[in-house]
Design a protein that fits this description.
Chain lengths: 112, 112
């Protein structure tokens, strides 16, 4: 079965650079969630979108922004990167019918 | 604030049943119990969920007490590939705030 696709899988950036992470949900899923997992920590919710509208917001820094496009894929834009942004970033998707979230493999961001 | 309490670690012999407990004494009537697991640095994997009845699927069984204040996830025949962090989560599906709040989870080790 098709799963959530995230790209890139690995990304290395310098401090103060920008990064864009992409998420392609499972077909026919209309909701996307973004989570951040720092080293040795549990995943933390950042933001979610339902039908291209922001539906919920967590502890997402103002330097980060995200959107969901008409084809339901989502992008997380991160600017002025800091060392502390180094983490795994997971995207999850769900449908209105089941509301069970399925996670992608993650993007490992390293900020040097 | 954590809504669930889980033991930080457990171990189980390969081939035996692994029983992972979870306390959720403040669960409200419209909250479901979900279980996810995360194998080292991979995306969290959905296992099972339930409201008040016991549930079973191809991966596991979920036993919820009658007062719904605790539950147990059962992996009937544990294998080495079941070594992971298991998260017990309570959430209200189909709501505008249906994000997953991960607690500390239980680190399950399967020994040969």
């Amino acid at each position: 079965a098709a799963g959530v696709i995230q790209s890139p899988r690995h990304l290395i950036k310098e401090k103060r650079e920008t990064a864009t992470l992409k998420c392609y949900p499972i077909p026919r899923h209309d909701t996307v969630y973004w989570y951040q997992q720092g080293p040795g920590q549990d995943p933390q919710f950042l933001i979610s979108f339902y039908e291209k509208m922001q539906s919920d917001k967590g502890s997402i820094p103002d330097r980060f922004s995200a959107q969901q496009f008409s084809d339901y894929h989502s992008e997380l834009n991160m600017s002025s990167l800091e060392l502390g942004d180094s983490a795994l970033y997971f995207c999850a998707s769900s449908s209105s019918w089941t509301d069970t979230q399925y996670f992608g493999p993650g993007t490992r961001l390293t900020v040097l | 604030d954590a809504k669930t309490t889980q033991p930080p670690s457990m171990d189980c012999a390969e081939g035996r049943a692994a029983n992972l407990p979870c306390n959720h004494s403040t669960i409200s009537g419209n909250e479901y119990v979900y279980w996810y697991r995360q194998i080292h640095s991979q995306g969290p994997q959905y296992i099972i969920h339930g409201l008040k009845n016991n549930e079973t699927n191809e991966m596991a069984s979920l036993i919820i007490t009658e007062d719904r204040k605790s539950s147990t996830l059962i992996l009937p025949h544990a294998t080495l590939r079941d070594t992971a962090v298991y998260y017990c989560i309570v959430r209200v599906p189909y709501s505008s705030a249906s994000k997953i709040i991960f607690g500390s989870g239980t680190r399950l080790s399967i020994r040969p």
